[in-house]
Amino acid sequence: MNGVIILDKPAGWTSHDVVNRMRRILGQRSVGHLGTLDPLATGVLPLVTGSLTRLAQFYTASDKTYEGVIRFGFATNTYDADGDPVGEPRTVAPILDELQTLATQFVGVIDQVPPPFSAKKIHGVPAYKMARKQQEVVLKAVQVEIKEFVILSVEAGCAHFRARVASGTYMRSVAHEMGQRLGCGAHLGSLRRTAVAEFEIAQAHTLQEIEAGKSEGAVSTIDGNVAEDNLASSPRTVRDFFVHPRQLLPQFPSVTADEPTAARIRSGRSINLPDVSRARQVKVFHGQTELIAIASRIAGTLFHPKIVFPND
Length: 312
Known about the structure:
By secondary structure, the chain is of the alpha+beta class. The protein has three domains: 3-61 and 199-241, Alpha-Beta Plaits (2-Layer Sandwich), CATH 3.30.70; 64-196, Pseudouridine synthase; 249-308, PUA domain (Archaeosine Trna-guanine Transglycosylase, Chain: A, domain 4), CATH 2.30.130.10. It is built from six helices and 20 strands. The strands form five sheets. Strands 1, 2, 3, 4, 7, 10, 11, 12 and 13 form a nine-stranded mixed sheet that branches. α1 runs parallel beside α5. The chain starts with a strand and ends with a strand.
């Protein structure tokens, strides 16, 4: 089964936990994700299945949008609510105007130190493994980009925010540094990802919904095609949760190949395609829903398949 499902990740689960559960639900090993979410976080986690796991290379630099809460009064060792307090908690009453002004200092390309409990590696060892053993973790600052960071409201020592960031940005570190600058300590109280690239929370489904869809229509794969035994009578099956392939990578125009052209593409051969506004890369379909390749322009209307997606 080849496709993309947008999951609404529950709190307390790692991204790997979700992938493992989806492998069991779908009955296939080839499942991956397009961007890790911390266990504390909820929201948009795009999952790729079958040969479309190869799409991951196009999403490594995708923007992400978040909504969340920063709690002021004490820091934690993980920079979020899952960690242990660092220092004595204090009762603080941050002022909305002051936080909004402070937030502007984080917008743009900035140097950011990743959290010690992160996947960043030190001499090949993930930092979180060293932190769990209470070993010293010294991480260098890296450049990240925060494209939008707005404090929406403040209540009971907590600030509600919205942010849009480039890949590699840690909102945990933003919360921690805000607490340092105010001298009162702070950590990320909650985080919800509302968008990744072209995928939005409105498209997301819970694991419970997807499991229910599995029980509504028994899923099998025949020559790479999804078949539901009860498709005619079931209003909601697993196939219904997949994003339509033509909605993927909207920056690449779509081209529909006839049978002879599709055969050449599947064999990795260069082909001539209709003019597509001089695009450097295109999505090539056989029929309306079968994505068979991402092709790169060589010259004129001649394209070569960069990636071919075989049927599972």
